Amino acid sequence: MNYQKYRPYPPMAMPDRKWPNRQITEAPIWCSVDLRDGNQALEVPMTFQQKLDFFTFLVKTGFKEIEVGFPAASDTEYNFCRALIEQKLIPDDVTIQVLTQSREHIIRKTFEALRGVKNAIVHLYNSTSTLQRDVVFQMSKEEVTQLAVDGAVMIQDLAREYGAENYHFEYSPESFTGTEMEYAVEICNAVLDVWKPTPEKKVIINLPSTVEMATPNVYADQIEYVCEHIHDRDSVIISLHAHNDRGCAVASSELGLMAGADRVEGTLFGNGERTGNADIMNIAMNMFSQGIDPKLNFDNIEEVVQMYEKSTGLFVHPRHPYAGKLVYTAFSGSHQDAIKKGMARGKEHPEYWEVPYLPIDPADVGRSYDPIIRINSQSGKGGVAYILEQNFGLILPKNLQKDFGPMVTKVSDTNNKELLPQELYDLFMKEYVNRTEPLKLLHYSEAIRGTDQSSIEAEMLYSGRNVTIHGEGNGIISAFCKAIEGLLGIDVEVVNYSEHSLEYGSKSRAITYIQMRCDGKDYYGAGISSNITKSSLRAIVTAINKILKA
Ligand SMILES: CC(=O)SCCNC(=O)CCNC(=O)[C@H](O)C(C)(C)COP(=O)(O)OP(=O)(O)OC[C@H]1O[C@@H](n2cnc3c(N)ncnc32)[C@H](O)[C@@H]1OP(=O)(O)O
Ligand SMILES: CC(C)C(=O)C(=O)O
Q1: What is the CA radius of gyration of the chain?
Q2: 3-class state of residue 90 by DSSP
Q3: Is the pLDDT of residue 95 over 70?
């Protein structure tokens, strides 16, 4: 690979940078650019109806500023803007934003599209980078500044003509991160000199990382630099607009906020040109996970995914932060074990969310706990036990978990597939519960003598033959074991016994787990019945059948 044809991004000397010591403590002003930057990057741009549905959804999510399009670009864009205004679809507390180049006919068309609007941001841009000045405009710095100033003047004049109080202004030195910082400040100040913002009527200066060219700390340095050198800082809203070419748009936006920005432009799931824009949902949820009110509502993330996929024709990656199908799922054993323990402790201390491997409570975005643990050949006994307990109310004793775990791994490994909860349950039932081959309990009667002596007479089916067995012991379990020892000529010892009820109510059933030792090896069985003695005897028969099979 010919890396020599690339050059490193020049470092910025900023020894007194302040942003690394700052923290994000509140939500910025959010501006969705899904309907403009997101839309312009789609193979098939959204239809009128898709844009309308998406707009309604963005309003519902809590966006107060929404860039609805580039009205001069096409009839759909223009008509969409007109429909929002004419059909009064814009709530009073929402401001629509439209983008325009610094060209007279485009600016005029943009104002025509906005006729009658209550609140609008007119967003003017022109590229300022060394490369675009040279290649696209073939203009000097002075000429490019004049281009921006001419556009700013035209916008101001038209706003006055149409009713100045309804219009707010935004200027973007497009390709800001490819621009010399002194010049970026100079051109923004030239535009501010035209628009003359006040603290009551601020102007937005949007500083795009049009193409992400360096690490996010460099963007933060640049934002801090502009914040410190721009005119009328208290009358200016510094806005971020980060693209994701290096995969860091979210981080760039976050560091940009630490560096003093007030506003973030971005899109849901980061749709946008090339590798996309900054993902606003991701930034907002990062804030949420730090205990900050993000002022956007993602409590039903599935609905957000559906709206996005339906509107853009794109898909949310299964590992997309906060929203992907797999992000609240753990396959590996140690993760499953830790999540299970964390969930259990969380029930005792619900004030703060502290579950290993899960940065947020899935319920906060409308996702359920059910699929948190899924079982494949990388899973351990903890996860298996969790699934059986959560889904089927089976509380497996620790040693039985150890016995069953490797069996699950083997089945999953052999078939090279995940085991769904029902498959796990079926495997457990088949291996451990109420096994009747070759030995089956048909009937039994128990007699109790004194306080600690029991005897049992049981009718069994053994390899197709009916046999009656007798035994005595200090309880029904030991009496039954003695009777079986007599039938089979083996020595067995019950090492562990536990039981719990499976359902509530009069028809409740119990499950009994037995760990039995024979010739120094342990065997496990379980029995289910509405009668506790019967479930115990069935558990013993199951364990004996496993001994016979071994
Ligand atoms: C980084 C971004 O996302 S910026 C937003 C980009 N989005 C879009 O471009 C989508 C909508 N755009 C369009 O539909 C079209 O480009 C239109 C309608 C705006 C303009 O169409 P046209 O004039 O036919 O073509 P085109 O965009 O190629 O125009 C290029 C000309 O505009 C100039 N230009 C480009 N951007 C700007 C600008 N911001 N301000 C002033 N002039 C500009 C170019 O230098 C070039 O000039 P030249 O013809 O003298 O060489
Ligand atoms: C118009 C500007 C803000 C833009 O979309 C970009 O630079 O990416």
Answers
A1: 35
A2: coil
A3: yes
The helix (run of H) or strand (run of E) holding residue 51 is helix 48-61
Q: Are 518 and 503 in contact (CB under 8 A)?
A: no
Q: What are phi and psi of 188, to 5 degrees?
A: -65, -40
| ipTM of the complex model | 0.97
213 is written with which tokens? 């060219």
Ligand nearest to the CA of 41: 1
Report residues whose beta carbon is within 6 angstroms of any ligand 1 atom: 37, 40, 70, 72-73, 101-103, 106, 125-126, 136-137, 147, 174, 210, 273
- For residue 129, report the distance from its CA to the centre of ligand 2, in Å: 12
Of the bound ligands, which one is closest to the alpha carbon of residue 205?
2
Contacts of 196 (CB under 8 A, 6+ apart): none
Residue in 110, 174, 219, 252 to alter for ligand 2 test, most ligand atoms within 8 A of Cβ: 174
| Chain segment 259-289, per-residue pLDDT in tens | 999 999 999 999 999 999 999 999 999 999 9
What is the best residue among 34, 175, 210, 212 to mutate for testing ligand 2's pocket, by most ligand atoms within 8 Å of CB?
210
User: Collapsing DSSP states into helix, strand and coil, what is residue 243?
Assistant: strand
Distance 507 CA to ligand 2 centre (A): 67
Encoded amino acid at 515, one letter: Q
- In tens, the pLDDT along 481-533 reads 999 999 999 999 999 999 999 975 556 899 999 999 999 999 999 999 999 99
Question: Hey, how many other C-beta atoms are within 10 angstroms of the C-beta on 430?
Answer: 9
Q: Tokens 């973030």 label which residue? A: 264
